[in-house]
Design a protein that fits this description.
The chain is mostly helical. It has 3 domains: about 15-225, no CATH class; about 240-425, no CATH class; about 430-665, no CATH class. Helices cover about 60% and strands about 0% of the residues. It is built from 31 helices and no strands. The chain has helices at about 15-20, 45-50, 60-80, 85-90, 100-115, 115-140, 150-155, 155-165, 165-175, 185-190, 200-225, 250-260, 270-280, 285-305, 325-330, 340-345, 350-360, 370-375, 385-400, 415-425, 430-445, 455-460, 470-485, 500-505, 505-515, 525-560, 565-600, 600-605, 610-630, 640-660, 665. Helix 23 (about 470-485) packs parallel to helix 27 (about 565-600). The longest helix has about 35 residues, at about 525-560. The chain is elongated. The protein starts with 12 loop residues before the first helix and ends with a helix. It comes from Rhadina sibilatrix. Pfam families: DUF4209. This is EMARD protein.
Length: about 675
């Protein structure tokens, strides 16, 4: 592994030149009055005159534009430094309202007064995040689906219609284009050290944001449109994110020592680590995570490039190539189809990769980096619980790559619980993990059925013209036989020949089966295809359960109040009969899902014919559950049809089981 002290920059030579030198080549002083009117408004025409264009195709000449804008940015920076906070608020605060996070921009002004490099970089990351979100809101005045990538957003016709193409070209010089300064990406992906981001660029973006507010106000007055801000993403079920214990000051103090000694930390990035831990201690949780995520990325990039022997990938690539990000580092294969060696270096690849995939990538996870960097989260209310997990994970990585001789803390009484939590981590947001959660939630719902209010049996029997429970009993017997055939695939302590339904189809069994470790890392496409179908089946079962609970409660109330007509009373009797076999039938399906889930990787490795046959079988079960949703809905109440459909499905299941085409037989 490369020595962290030997890395002096993570910016490639052209990118370093563009950010750190190009905008300083023109040393002439620029008069702020040229771009600032007497009432403090931005003179956009004077600003846009500094954007240069290529003669060949009239596209932006980013090199000449950065060089030309350098003195303008310096002038703006000095101008802001000359203002008091009160003057700035009076002059500019109202122009930041359109961003829906005015306070962030006022904080950036405070940062610029002190020019502390780490704080300037943090301020710029927050500014670009909030600006992107606000521009997306403006986009939705004209368009429907807001582009996910900033570069696509800035290049959109919709924003050009509102602000003008020349104005959008100015923004693209600073952010959003890989050909320009690209300040957002080099910071959010961990390429720039604090000293490599000139404060004047942060000042210029603050100035331009105010100017955009002025332009937008004029546009809204002319069009009578109303700018609507999209709601922020709110983290729910925070307990699902709870992987590490609460971090106290003692742990954080040890972490401050670890960052100075861990080979995971590049020396040039050390100020970011210290600032991140300080922010956490100061309860600035969004700041802490914003600072830390890029450092986790650059640290992992160092491991990735070293273990895969591609040291050049540590640097930002040119605009003609992609740079190495989390997505590639967490992939199974490199772009040349060779095996990614990073998991081997991590020693506990499932832990580290599962955690990172959970918190950063999985669509049903918090996707913290995406949502923070694209401005989807309210920075003022960012939860401590989420920050605690990111910082806790970072500490375990620091400890993993610390020198044992210098810093033997892995067995420390404070650090050891963190390391234990890391080694036991299992994915919570992979589709397989979500399926397990779905199954158990559905089972809890079905377990409520015995508590449903029901009319005494003797009253139900008085309804004339209805047959007894013979058909329902037949279905229950068929389910019992199916369970008996499946028992040797289940733990021995759950088997009972006397009452297989109530002794086997239990919540305890499903919990035990779902607790079995199933590989989620690098799941192949066939596995994910199967899981998609299984999740749909589980969801349909849950909906059936909810409909039965609601319908049974309503019909009981109507029975007691004697508001049921004759036909409705007959239908209620059919519902009560159906509930007797539907409960074990739904539990049987959930059992099949969990048993198949344990072996899902094995069946998908079989030959394509077997796999397609299996998928066809699953889709037939899905069709059954979808029909159940229809038949048990309050609009349909087709209970006789439900019984007949269940009988046919059980016959098919038994045939498939006999031919050994079910997953557990293929495994």
């Amino acid at each position: 592994m490369a020595l962290p002290d030997s890395v002096t920059t993570c910016l490639s030579q052209p990118v370093h030149y563009a950010i750190c030198k190009l905008g300083f080549e023109k040393t002439d002083t620029y008069d702020i009055k040229n771009i600032l009117s007497g009432n403090g408004e931005v003179c956009w025409q004077a600003v846009t005159e500094h954007v240069c264009y290529l003669e060949s195709d009239q596209s932006v000449d980013y090199t000449k534009s950065i060089r030309s804008l350098g003195p303008v940015c310096e002038s703006v920076n000095l101008y802001f430094k000359s203002l008091t906070k009160e003057q700035f608020v009076i002059q500019y605060a109202s122009w930041f309202h359109w961003t829906n996070c005015k306070e962030v921009f006022l904080e950036v002004f405070d940062v610029l007064q002190h020019t502390e490099a780490t704080e300037v970089a943090l301020g710029l990351m927050k500014l670009t995040s909030c600006l992107e979100r606000a521009l997306g809101d403006v986009y939705l005045l004209k368009g429907n689906d807001c582009p996910f990538l900033l570069r696509d957003l800035l290049a959109s016709e919709q924003l050009a219609d509102v602000f003008g193409q020349a104005v959008m070209n100015i923004l693209r010089v600073f952010i959003g284009s890989p050909h320009g300064l690209n300040l957002r990406n080099v910071l959010w992906h961990g390429f720039a050290s604090p000293q490599e981001i000139p404060a004047k660029y942060c000042a210029m973006l603050l100035f331009l944001t105010a100017g955009l507010g002025q332009l937008l106000q004029t546009y809204l007055l002319q069009t009578k449109d109303v700018l609507v801000h999209r709601p922020y993403v709110i983290f729910i079920s925070l307990e699902e994110l709870d992987a590490f214990p609460d971090l106290n000051n003692e742990i954080l103090s040890i972490a401050e020592e670890l960052v100075k000694l861990s080979s995971f930390v590049l020396k040039i990035m050390l100020p970011f680590w210290i600032a991140a831990l300080t922010a956490f201690k100061q309860s600035r949780y969004a700041d802490s995570v914003i600072l830390l995520l890029p450092q986790l990325e650059v640290g992992l990039r160092l491991l990735f490039t070293t273990s895969n022997r591609c040291p050049n990938r540590l640097l930002t690539a040119e605009s003609s190539a992609l740079y190495t990000t989390f997505d590639e580092m967490l992939a199974k294969h490199l772009d040349n189809e060779e095996i990614n060696q990073l998991p081997v270096v991590l020693e506990e690849p499932a832990m580290a990769s599962d955690f990172l995939w959970d918190f950063l990538n999985h669509q049903e996870g918090p996707r913290i980096r995406d949502r923070l960097s694209h401005g989807e989260i309210n920075l003022e209310t960012f939860p401590r619980e989420v920050a605690n997990q990111i910082v806790g994970f970072a500490i375990t990585i620091l400890c993993r790559f610390s020198d044992e001789d210098k810093f033997s803390l892995k067995e420390h009484m404070v650090i050891k619980p963190l390391m234990n939590c890391a080694s036991c981590y299992r994915s919570r947001f992979h589709p397989i993990s979500r399926l397990k959660k779905q199954v158990l939630e559905c089972m809890k719902s079905i377990h409520l059925w015995p508590e449903l209010p029901t009319v005494p049996e003797e009253q139900v029997q008085q309804i004339k013209g209805l047959e007894g429970n013979a058909e329902a009993d037949t279905l229950i017997l068929m389910i019992s036989e199916m369970i008996s055939q499946l028992q040797h695939y289940m733990p021995q302590n759950c088997c009972s020949s006397d009452d297989p339904i109530n002794s086997v189809l239990t919540e305890r069994l499903l919990v035990e089966l779902c607790d079995a470790r199933v590989c989620t890392l690098y799941s192949p496409r066939p596995v994910l295809e199967v899981v998609v179908v299984l999740r749909r089946i589980s969801a349909q079962c849950h909906q059936v359960s909810q409909q039965v609970i609601a319908g049974a409660g309503l019909r009981y109330t109507q029975w007691v109040n004697k508001t049921l007509r004759s036909r409705q009373r007959h239908n209620y009797r059919r519902m009560l009969n159906s509930i007797k076999f539907l409960s074990p039938m739904l539990r049987l399906i959930l059992l099949l899902i969990t048993l198949e889930l344990v072996s899902v990787h094995s069946v998908c490795k079989k030959n394509p014919f077997d796999y397609q046959q299996y998928l066809k079988f699953l889709k037939s079960v899905l069709q059954y559950t979808e029909n159940l949703v229809t038949y048990t809905s309050p609009e349909k109440n087709k209970w006789d049809e439900t019984m007949e459909l269940t009988k046919k499905t059980l016959i098919n299941l038994r045939k498939i089981n006999d031919r050994k085409l079910m997953l557990m037989h293929l495994a």
